[in-house]
Write a structure and sequence with these properties.
The termini are close together. β8 and β9 form a beta hairpin. 29% of the residues lie in helices and 40% in strands. It is elongated and about 105 Å long. It is of the alpha+beta class. α1 (2-31) packs antiparallel against α4.
Amino acid sequence: MRRKASLVLLALAVFCTALAPLMRWYAFPRLAKIPPSQYQEMVLEAKPATLIDYGTMKAEKVPKISIVQTLKGNVEASEKVERTVDRDVVVWDALSYVAGPDGKMVSEIPERYIFDAHTQEPVHAKGEAVDGEPVRRDGIEYKWPFLTEKRDYNYFDAQTRTSAPIHYKGTRRFQGLDVYYFEQTIPWTKVPLPKKMPVKGVTPESVEKMGTTRWYTTKRMFWVEPVTGAPINGEEIHKEELRGGDLLPGGGKVTAFAGHVKMRPDYLAATVDLVSSQRTLVLLLTSYLPWGLLTTGAALLAMSLYLEARGRRPGGRAMTA
């Protein structure tokens, strides 16, 4: 009976040992993905900030500017794209809504972001847009890949409609988690005016006819949990200006919006909790199960060899079973 038991244990040991790399290198890339119906809301604030008064066309100090960012998975749109590209696709309908201290709209920019559910690489399909204008993204936006690496990535900037490197700046400890810190600086760049303007009757076309242009610069900072690739914190040192034309007295320039934008503390805490739970699920596929299977396989192999050796001893009773 010892001989039969050792063979069974040996078979189980081989099975567990073979399953471990399959779990990590075959199952994980196929099972780990962003759900197509995901919904996320984030509130950021700049306290204090500078904001233009369109009545006087002068910049004024204000106590607070709020930015509400929403990401809503569009399941119907993702299924339509999947039929054309033969891969798992997520379509996020995003909205960045900026409100002044009185709660009134300062700007509102919608986006449609289409990407691979497993790798987070952009998928170029009909509907990919920023503020209603077609774009072709190169690089990530909003989320890093699972198992983020210590390197620079290309990151898409919605204001300029272009991609630029976002640089890995080291590993840091943040809210009890080891995270990768990234920075990106966008130099002063002429950018389109939002299609939805805060002043009734004023359109981007009417502003442009007066010769006034909009310029923008920002320093973007992210603290990314590397296992999930999810940012647990994000900040921007953001500045916009209107320059030239008949709209401005003397044809100079005026600050339209400036401030250090940070996540509101309650949303920061909720994000850390959410990412911590998702991190456990990813580690289950990439670390806990593979290493557990390898350990179990080694233990079963040791037991199998022990029983085999014991059965081969002179006078061992297992040989007559």
